[in-house]
Queue: 2 jobs
Job 1
Amino acid sequence: MSKLLRVAALQMTSGTDVGANLAQAIELVNEAAHQGARYIQLPEYASFWGPASRYREGAQGLDGPFLTAMADVAEELALTVHVGSVLEARGGGRYANTSVVIGPRGTRALYRKMHLFDVDVPNGVTFHESQHIDPGDELVTVQTAETTLGLSVCFDLRFPELFRALALADASVLCVPSAFSAATGPPHWEILLRARAIENGAFVVAGAQVGTTSEGLATHGHSMIIDPWGEVLAQATSEGAEVVVADCVLDSSAERRHQINTLGLRRPTLYAGAVRRYDLS
C-alpha cells in the first residue's frame, strides 16, 4: 500500500504585530488540521515581517511566546508543525532567520538560513539581509513519522547544491518556506520550485508570505505543493491568507528517482576538477 501524507502550505500576511501574526498562524494551522493535514508549514518570517528598524521589538528567543504557543498547538493536534521561520534574537543586535520544525510531542529541529538575501535588482528590489542576520552553517534533515524533510528558507532556493545535498541525505520532501519578493516572484518562483523537485525527485512544499506591508515590503505569495515529477499538486488561488492542501504519495519519490537516477548517476569526483577552457573568439 502506498504511503500517503496530506500536507499543507500556509500562506500568510505577517506584519510587525507578533501577537496578530500568532493568532493568524494558529487559525490557519487549525484549519489545515481540520482538512486532515499531518504536516503543516508556515512561511518565512511567520512571527515578524517588517523593517530592520523594528527587529529589536519583533525578535524572540527560541523559548519565546510565539514558538511556545506553536509547540502547544502541535502537541494538542498531534501533528508536525513547521514554523517556516522566525526572527530569532541572538544578542548584540544580531539575529538569525531560524526555521523550526515541531513534532507532535513538542520536540524541535532547527535550521538557520544559510544563504542570505543580499540583492540589488535595478527597478526591482534592493535588500541586504546580512546587515542584521547571521547565516547558518549546517544542513538539516528531519525524520518525521512519515518521511524525511530537507530544510531550507526562501533565497536558499537559488542554490541547487543545497537541495542536492539534502536529497543525497534521503530527504524526499524539500521544504521552502518563503517571503519571496514580488519583483522576482513572477519570473522565478514557480520555475525554481519545480526545478528543485524534478532534479531531486522530491516533493517541494513552499508556504509563502503574500501582500505588501505598511512599510512597503512586497511579497509574491503563490504558495505551492509540487510532486517529484514537477507537477503542481496545489497552489494558492488568492492574494491573502490561505491554506493550500495536497495529498502526497510518498512512494513516488523513490519511484521517480529509480526511473531517472540523477542521484546515482552523478560523477562528483569530476565536478571538483579543473575546467578545461577553450577560446574560439
Job 2
Amino acid sequence: MKRVVFNQKGGVGKSTISANLAAQSARQGLRTLLVDLDAQGNSTHYCGVDVNNDGLTVADMFKQVVGWFSKPEPPEAFVRPTPFNHLFVLPSHPSLADVERELENRYKMFKLKETLSELETEFDRVYIDTPPNFNFYSKAALIAADRFIVPFDCDDFSIQAIDRLLQNVLELRADHNPELQLEGIVINQFNAQAKLPIELIAALEAKSLPVFAQKVHSSVKVKESHSKRMPLPYLAPAHKVSMQFAQLWEELEQGQNAPQ
C-alpha cells in the first residue's frame, strides 16, 4: 500500500502526520518506507536522518534520471535506515528545488512510480510526504500512490482550499492514475472546546467528504518530538496524541473510510 499525505496549504501537519503514521506502521512490525519529497526535509529530519552526510537522497534519484550522474544506482541505494526498527526513509534534500524544472521539461513524473514499483517487494507500507503546493513532486507522488489522505487544520482558509485541491487531484487521476483513491480527511490540531472546528467538520461532511473518526489534537508533546527527532510512537507511546495516531493508523488499516 502506497499512501500519499497531501494538501496544497502549508502548515497543516503533513510531515507530522506522515512521519507518525509511518512510525506507527513500523512499530507494528511492518517494513515501512517514508518518502520525503519536500525540499525542506522536515519528515527526514524528524525520523533522525541527516541529509548533510554523504548518503544518497531522493534528489539524487531524480538527478540521475536527467543525466546528472554518469553511473545509475539501483532504487535501494537511495533508501536509508532510521534509528528505529523497520522504519526506512527515502530522504529529501534542498537540491530537489534545483532539478525540478528540468524534470518538468522532460516530463519525468512517472519516475517515482517506477522506483517504488521496483521497491514494492521490500516494503509492506509506503508513506509519501509532499510539498505544500501542487508542483512536480506532488504530482509524482499522486501518480505513484494507491491512496491519498488530506490533512485539515480546522482553519477557514483550509476549507476554502479543499475544493481546489480535490479538483486538481481528480484531473490528475483521470489523466495519469485512475486507481488513485481518496481515503479521507485527517482533522489535525483539533480543539474540541472550540466552536469553529465543529462547524468546519460539519461543512466537510455536508460536502459528502470522508472524514476520519479519529482526530489529532494539539499538544506541546508534538513539538517536543520534533525537537528530539523522535516520532511520538517512540518518544511517548502512551501519550494522548500518540494513541490518536495509533487509532488513526488502525482506521486506515481497517479501511473504515470507503475510498472514493
